[in-house]
């Protein structure tokens, strides 16, 4: 009978190193330093994999548990330490530990944490935030937000008063109809709030772009305060991963738009950042281009003489 494949909760040294290398472009020393940081920060821990001669099961053993004989966790038999054939590099393996061991990208927490970090470091001046909370209205309708943030705008921003940001985050899953419905509901509840959609994926699919474009257009109305009804900020892997790179600056991630991005991130005007993110991730025109086009269309309509002038019958 072929052996059933058991899902392993550890990765051998070569594959762990490969992943660390992929996330750390640069010289060998940078890779080693980052690997050390992951160990010292309690993200990864090293152990030894030993194969049991009784049941043929490979199991992972902590450094503290290593002894002349260890217990096989599968058959509870004794596994002798292979003293005559000491472990090779590939016999050492790494496990994520503590909160990092939670499945599904720590139940989405990595994406929320990266998004909050990005907003704090790159967008707002001061903030107070809350991850994962429920909003309940008087009728008992409940919606969950991945995060909420009260932010003080940056010095060079047009906005002068603090604003509310409400976030929906997806690690690698796709935004669904219920996420968009929730965003529309929250937009209605909080005029002036910025809606933030964040994902680790680099690009959005056609369905997401269509739905988000509709939410953006719905929010492109001006409130009496001069703020937009609901500005929409889209963040993807482009922003969320670029913020941690040390070999290039954030704006360089935008290719042709790098110069424009640099200015946007210097000014840190939330509505401009939203508009920029919509151009990059949804392929929309900027808010100002869109507004100009709207005005042009209105003027054109006014100039077009009506075929037959309507005569008012009352009065
Ligand atoms: Zn065994």
Description:
The chain has 315 residues and is α+β, with helices and mostly antiparallel strands. The chain has two domains: 11-99, no CATH class; 105-299. The chain has helices at 13-23, 28-40, 103-107, 109-123, 177-189, 206-219, 237-242, 258-267, 270-282, 287-303; strands at 11-12, 44-51, 58-62, 69-71, 78-80, 92-96, 126-136, 142-152, 163-170, 194-199, 232-235. The strands form three sheets. A five-stranded mixed β-sheet has the order 7-8-9-10-11, with helices on both faces. A four-stranded antiparallel β-sheet has the order 1-6-2-3. Bound molecules: zinc ion (ZN).
Short description:
37% of the residues lie in helices and 21% in strands. The protein has 315 residues and is an alpha+beta fold. It has 2 domains: 11-99, no CATH class; 105-299.
Small molecules held by this entry: zinc ion
* Total of DSSP H or I helical runs spanning 4+ residues: 10
The main β sheet shows up as: 5 strands, mixed
Measured as a percent range, the helix fraction is: 25-40%
Average of per-residue pLDDT values: 91
Strand order of the largest sheet: 7-8-9-10-11
Q: In terms of structural class, how would the helical and strand content be classed?
A: alpha+beta
Strand percentage: 15-25%
Structural shape: elongated
Radius of gyration: 27 Å
- Any low-confidence stretches, pLDDT <50, length ≥5? none
Number of domains: 2
The helix-strand sequence is EHHEEEEEHHEEEHEHEHHHH
Number of strands: 11
Measured distance between first and last alpha carbons: 95 Å
